[in-house]
Amino acid sequence: MTLTFHWFLPTYGDSRDIVGGGHGLPAGSAGGARPATLAYLRQIVHAAEQLGFVGALTPTGAWCEDAWLTTAMLAETTERLKFLVAFRPGLITPTLAAQMAATFQRHSEGRLLLNVVTGGESHEQRAYGDFLDKDARYARADEFLHIVRALWRGETVDFTGEHLRVEEARLNRLPDPVPDIYFGGSSAAAGRVAARHVDTYLTWGEPPTAVAEKIAWVNGLAAAEGRTLRQGIRLHVISRDTSEQAWAQAGRLLDGIDSATLENVQAGLARSESEGQKRMLALHGGSRDKLEIYPNLWAGVGLVRGGAGTALVGSHTEVADRIEEYHRLGITEFVLSGHPHIEEAYWFGEGVLPILRSRGLWQHPQASQDGGEPASVPFAPAAAR
Predict the structure, then answer these.
(1) How far apart are CA 277 and CA 156, in angstroms?
(2) CA gap 288, 258 in Å, rounded
(3) E-assigned strands of the chain?
(4) CA-CA distance, 201 to 232, in Å (whole number)?
C-alpha cells in the first residue's frame, strides 16, 4: 500500500521556534513571529499541495482559529489538497455537522476529511458551555457519530440517547464522497468509539513498541465490531541532508526554551485529563535530558507544546527508515508538521519523499497524471533523485 502523508496548518501562528498551545494550556499561549493570516496559510497549503501531501490537518480549540471557516476560505485557493478539519462534537449538533460536511464536499469537490476531537480538558469545554466529564464526552461522541453516519446514508433519523436526541432528521443533499473520519484517543472509552465509527485511528508518536501495542488494541476492538481500521500517526519532523544538521536544529529549538517557560508549560500539561497527553509527558518527564527516546525519535517538542510532542529527527535517509519501521507495524498515514511549516515541508518533501518513492512506498498524488517520473535535476544529490 502506498503511504499517505498529510501536513499541518498552524492556525495559531508559526515561528522558527516551537510554538506552544494545546492540551492544558491557556488560550493565549500560542502565537509566533508569523501570524496565521490567510496569506501565510495559503503559502503553506500551496507548498503542501505541490510537494505531494494529500491533506492538511487543521486543529481545534480556544488557542487557534476556527478550523471550518479557515479551511473553507483556503479551499478556493487550492486544487487537490484535502483538509482534515478537527472539530468537537459537543459544540455542534450532529445534523448540522452532517449538513456542513455535505456542503463542504460539494463546494470543494470532495476534499473534506474530518478529525473528531472529544475535548481533553473539561475547563476548556466549560468555556464553550459543555459541562460533561471526559467519559460522558466519549459517550456523546458515540451517539453523535451514530447519527451522522445514518444521515450520510440517506436515512431519516429518530434517535433518543443519553446525551443526544433528534427527530425526523434528514439531509436534503448527501455528501459525495462521504468524508473519512479520523479519531485518536488512548483511553478505553476512546477505543470503543474508534472501533465503532472511524475510518483512520490516529496515535501520537510514541516508540514503535508502544505504537504496536496500541494498534493491536484498537484493531482487536474494531474486529469485535466487524470492522477494520486504517492506522495513522501524528509526528513533527526535522529532516536535513545530514544527521548532524538535523540534530543541530533540534538543539537550537531546545536552546530557545527558557527554564521558566518549560516549568509553567509542564505544570499546565500535568493537569491535562487526556490519557494521550499523559503518555506524551511520560516520554520526557519534564526534563531536557535523554530526549532521544528511540533512535531518531525526539521528545523535545512536548516540553513546550500540548498534543503531539515528538519529532522524527535525522538525515533524510534516517527519517525515511523510521517511517518505514512504523509502516511495518501497520501505519499507512502520517500527519506531519515542523517549525516553521513552510520550510520544513520543503525539507521533508524534497528530502524524504524521494527516498520513499525509490523504495516503492510512496508516489506523488499527481504521478499518474504527469507520467509518474520526477524531472531530472542537474547536480542534485543522488538521494534526492
Answers:
(1) 38
(2) 11
(3) 4-8, 55-58, 82-87, 112-116, 157-160, 165-169, 181-184, 200-204, 230-240, 292-294, 297-298, 311-315, 331-337
(4) 6
| Cα–Cα distance for residue pair 298/251, rounded to 1 Å | 11
pLDDT tens, position by position, 227-243: 999 999 999 999 999 99
Rounded CA-CA distance 350/348 in Å is: 6
Cα dihedral 236, 134, 148, 67 in deg (nearest 10) = -40
Tens-place pLDDT, residues 168-201: 999 999 999 999 999 999 999 999 999 999 999 9
Residue 276 pLDDT level (bands cut at 50, 70, 90): confident
The span from the CA of 219 to the CA of 201, in Å, is 9
Q: Is the dihedral of CA 269, 271, 274, 276 positive or negative?
A: positive
Q: What pTM value is reported for the model? A: 0.93
Residue 118 to residue 135: CA distance in whole angstroms? 10
